[in-house]
Amino acid sequence: MATIDGLPPLRDVIQTYDLVAKKALGQNFLLDMNLTAKIARMAGDLTACDVLEVGPGPGGLTRGLLVEGARRVLAIEKDPRCIAALNDIAAVYPNRLSVMNADALAVDVGAALTPPIRIIANLPYNVGTELLIRWLSPAIWPPFWQSLTLMFQKEVAERIVARPKSDHYGRLALLAQWRCDAKIVMHLPPEAFTPAPKVHSAVVHLTRLDAPRFEADFAILQRIAAMAFNQRRKMLRSSLKGLHPAIETLLTDCDIPPTARAEEISLEQFCALSRAFAAAG
Length: 281
What we know:
Layout: H1 10-16, E1 29-30, H2 33-42, E2 50-54, H3 60-67, E3 72-77, H4 83-92, E4 97-101, E5 117-122, H5 128-136, E6 147-153, H6 154-161, H7 171-179, E7 180-188, E8 193-194, E9 201-208, H8 218-230, H9 236-239, H10 247-253, H11 267-280
Parallel strand pairs: 2-3, 2-5, 3-4, 5-6
Antiparallel strand pairs: 1-8, 6-9, 7-9
Helix pairs in contact: 2-3, 8-11
């Protein structure tokens, strides 16, 4: 069967290298090369970009990125069983694909890539949110990457783009939207994957802002958001009472009703409260 890049179909690659997906590694392989190429296109023009990919598995998305013209791809794969299959792809794309057998949570790859850099990945379900939070919370902003195009479980994707007064709105939405423009660009059903997960998936595209959307200290914003959303059904005057002895006054000064709940408060209001708390010591 013909493929878009002349390499063997991914089902044949999986059979050749006995790449049975491991639940412990959060693996669900996307085998339709038309879909992987479409995901690559969701990230925009890649011809002048280096791309970081995490969890490539047998290389379906990797091949899509290369077909769509990525200048260079650095693929980080924790599972040593997949390395031979990825090296086969590298041989067909000389000097355009580098493969690293490592845990993405344990390596710093910024120096290995040349800007502009985009991160594009079908993230392993078990580490996807943790990786996103790390990429959104570096010590220095703007970060080394230009955009993130990432696949998550649909519920996680909805949490990233959620708006106030919705069930999915919470800390992840605040963090993502404080520093990025975020939108869901693609939905995928379980049957698109091998093995089929029990949940639907979605691709989220995040474009970094040069500076956060509103002024706020990151650590303070995170602390306030954690306290507010950990008790999201409580009024803010109760959930934040341990933050400052005059919390009701701080809320009122920021035009936030003390009787409001976390899910009703906008990102701009959370940032205003962060500044007020910082000023109040």
